[in-house]
Specification:
The protein has about 400 residues and is of the alpha/beta class. About 30% of the residues lie in helices and about 25% in strands. Its EC number is 4.1.1.20.
Length: about 400
């Protein structure tokens, strides 16, 4: 996609607007597949939480992806999008036994991350295959909020609890068919990931009927030119060799699984916002756009840095701007950024807006959530309509009768 295509889409669908490039998603899917081509059986389960629009899910299904889900609602979305139940894995955290049972009843692979629910589920449903999520106690990830494999994490069953886990499996006679880990997002050090993988391999030796080992994901993508990223090709070469060696020792080939989300869709996404006001103060030039952290929360929530370009004036003189939103509190997308000269009415493009952007959007300040468009085979296709005032009121119950003054009785 180019800037002219994006500007045309804004003319057609308005701003703010999310746009996703299907070609980029497909190329990332193929890149990851090719990196692990030496593995006899590979399964990529797209992490639905990254971008859960049903049209994106249908596109992932068409590529041959499986689906990683974290809620019963995502499971149902996946089934509606055409995924077969056996292509969906349910990897929740801290949910009720009833929700896990509901997912299992739909025929999907369940993945349990705590001993309490594992024992309860195994006692009631010993014949239903279960994957176990292990916490390898390895710190990985680019931010404390997205590092989930360390010792203080709420995710997974601690490797120090393996003896207890094995006792539960033995007592319930439950069927463990998979082992899983996820250390965190934005992984920079391949050696740390490989170290955690060794812990997973060691754990897997305790189970004789495994069908797959799931290594999670969290691969880092570049957010600007020259930005560091996970070397997928090097990881593929090293982990494939080690995985094949493990399978040989285990006695049969297993499936190597990943659950990529950001890696597949982050770079495919563009967020487009219109400049409302250019405001000069004593020290700063603010470019205020018709959006805020209600649409793109990652800079305020994670401190993430999205590249921002002025696609209305790509050849203008560069100046320093702080790009801010219209939410009624501190709402900063980027401070002191070098951007081609901005005028009111220009369209700014935020890159890497495909993952954990729209899915984390809200109606804060009673603002509408934006439209979404899929760029597919050279054309834009609307995949979510822009919200209206009716959407703000939907599901609210107006109890105005409670506050109306009582009618006075009339005297004859």
């Amino acid at each position: 996609m180019n800037s002219k295509d994006l500007l045309k889409l804004v003319d057609q669908y308005g701003a703010p607007l999310y746009v996703y490039d299907a070609d980029k998603i497909a190329s990332q899917f193929n890149r990851l597949t090719n990196a692990f081509k030496e593995v006899p059986s590979l399964r990529l389960n797209y992490a639905a939480k990254a971008l859960s629009n049903i049209s994106i899910l249908r596109f992932m299904n068409s590529l041959g992806s499986g689906l990683d889900t974290v809620s019963i609602q995502e499971v149902k979305l996946g089934l509606l999008a055409g995924f077969k139940p056996e292509s969906i894995i349910f990897t929740p955290n801290g949910v009720s036994l009833e929700e896990i049972e509901a997912a299992a009843a739909l025929g999907v692979q369940v993945n349990i991350d705590n001993l309490s629910i594992l024992e309860q589920f195994g006692s009631k449903h010993p014949d239903i295959p279960v994957c176990i999520r292990i916490n390898p106690h390895v710190m990985a990830g680019g931010n404390s909020k997205i590092s989930v494999g360390h010792i203080d994490s709420k995710f997974g069953i601690s490797i120090h609890q393996i003896p207890h886990l094995l006792r539960i499996v033995d007592l319930t006679k439950m069927n463990i068919n998979g082992i899983h880990m996820h250390t965190g997002s934005d992984i920079l050090d391949i050696d740390v990931f490989l170290y955690a993988s060794e812990i997973l391999f060691e754990t897997a030796k305790n189970f004789k009927d495994l069908e797959f080992i799931d290594f999670g994901s969290g691969f880092k993508v570049p957010y600007k030119d020259g930005d560091i990223q996970t070397n997928i090709e090097e990881l593929g070469k090293k982990l494939s060799a080690r995985f094949n060696e493990f399978c040989k020792d285990y006695g049969r080939n297993l499936t190597l699984a990943f659950e990529p989300g950001k890696f597949l869709v982050s770079e495919a996404g563009f967020f487009l916002a219109k400049v409302n006001v250019v405001k000069q103060t004593t020290s700063t030039v603010f470019a205020s756009v018709d959006s805020g952290f209600n649409h793109l929360i990652r800079p305020m929530f994670y401190g993430s840095s999205h590249e921002i370009i002025n696609i209305s004036n790509p050849n203008g003189r560069e100046r320093y701007y702080s790009v801010v939103g219209y939410i009624c509190e501190t709402d900063t997308f980027g401070s002191n950024r070098r951007i081609n000269e901005i005028s009111e009415g220009d369209i700014l493009c935020f890159k890497n807006a495909g993952a954990y952007c729209f899915t984390m959007a809200s109606n804060y300040n009673s603002r509408y959530r934006p439209a979404e468009v899929l760029w597919y085979k050279g054309k834009g296709h609307l995949i979510r309509e822009r919200e209206t005032f009716d959407d703000i009121l939907r599901n609210q119950v107006d109890v105005k009768s409670l506050f109306e003054a009582p009618k006075k009785e009339t005297v004859n």
